[in-house]
Amino acid sequence: MIQRNFTRAIQRVMNMKAIKVESFGGPEVLKVCDVPIPQPAEDEVLVRIKAVGINPVDTYLRTGTHTIKPPLPYTPGSDGAGLVEKAGAAVTKFKAGDRVFVSGTVTGSYAEYATVKASTTHPLPALLDFKQGAALGAPYFTAYRALFIRGNIQAGQTLLIHGASGAVGNGCIQFAKAHGLTVFGTAGSQQGLDLIKKLGVDQAFNHREEGYEQKIMAASNGKGVDYVAEMLSNVNLQKDLDLLAHGGTVLLIGSRGDINISPRSLMTKETKMIGVMLPRSTKEEMALTSSEVVKGAEAGHLAPVIAREYPLAEVGQAHQDIINTTSAAGKLVLVT
């Protein structure tokens, strides 16, 4: 009896709670399971995950409709923040006890522990808590890539963030203001408008209001904007093209479907569209992005806004909320 109880106690210590997906489908396929704590390879760290960043792509992968289909069963999640529990033999940058955030994992971040390549592990600045750290990965890395690697945007230019109240939009606002841009932002609710004003947009517009495009054009003195950071291209792309100044650029960050546009909208003002996809980053680009995100957070320029937090057991509700929201207002996170 004593031996059996001792064995069970050891198993509890070596196990963790994690979300498992054993078949593609709706939020109901997300199951809380007891699984062994993974061990890091020599170039990895084991992180005690304190908070998890929920991203829309997590829901697409779960349904099996994404072009990438993870092998089943799997634990979702790429973003998170926590404490280094153990470092692999070849890891010199991190040690046990370090506060970190992660922008990719080996075993999935929807769990109490995850193994992470040292290359996708980053120091968590002291100004941010774990929930904010969990919100840095995909949203802020995407924002930086869109504006400065794909867009090459410059101080003094005008940026419209179409859908500024969500996590990527928040990141775009903070990066753009820190780099001296004039920033216009849109949101679909008063809560969203209040948030983006607090984050520093120069002018805020309700994209559910009839004729808001004319107000944006008037705010630019009829010239149009130099750049548009677009979060829902399948709805807004034609409007974006109409709002561009001569030679302007639309940065395509998000889309959930197809849209018909008029090619003449690009021809007459010699404008262009540029796609943005974070996984297409080279190692050099990812290293630069990580450095700039950490630097911005240390300086106080970058501070994610948390809209709502959920325990692991409510992950299904979180997946429903991130897709069905009519107006985002910050980042959704899981806490472990």
Task: Write a structural description.
The chain has 336 residues and is an alpha/beta fold. The protein has eleven helices and 15 strands. Helix 4 (137-150) packs across helix 10 (283-298). It is globular. The two termini are 32 Å apart.
What portion of residues belong to β-strands? 25-35%
Low-confidence stretches: none
Please, how many helices?
Answer: 11
Terminal residue distance: 32 Å
Query: What is the ordering of alpha helices and beta strands?
Result: HEEEHEEEEHHEHEHEHEHEHEHEHE
Content-based structural category: alpha/beta
Q: Describe the sheet with the most strands.
A: 7 strands, mixed
Task: Indicate the mean pLDDT.
Answer: 95
Q: What is the percent of helical residues? A: 25-40%
Q: What is the rounded Rg?
A: 21 Å
Strand tally is 15
Shape: globular
How do the helices and strands line up, and which of them pair or pack?
Layout: H1 2-14, E1 15-21, E2 30-36, E3 44-53, H2 56-63, E4 79-87, E5 99-103, E6 113-117, E7 121-123, H3 130-134, H4 137-150, E8 158-162, H5 167-178, E9 182-187, H6 190-199, E10 203-206, H7 212-219, E11 225-230, H8 233-243, E12 244-252, H9 264-269, E13 272-275, H10 283-298, E14 306-311, H11 315-324, E15 331-335
Parallel strand pairs: 8-9, 8-11, 9-10, 11-12, 12-13, 14-15
Antiparallel strand pairs: 1-2, 3-4, 3-6, 3-15, 4-5, 5-7
Helix pairs in contact: 4-5, 4-10
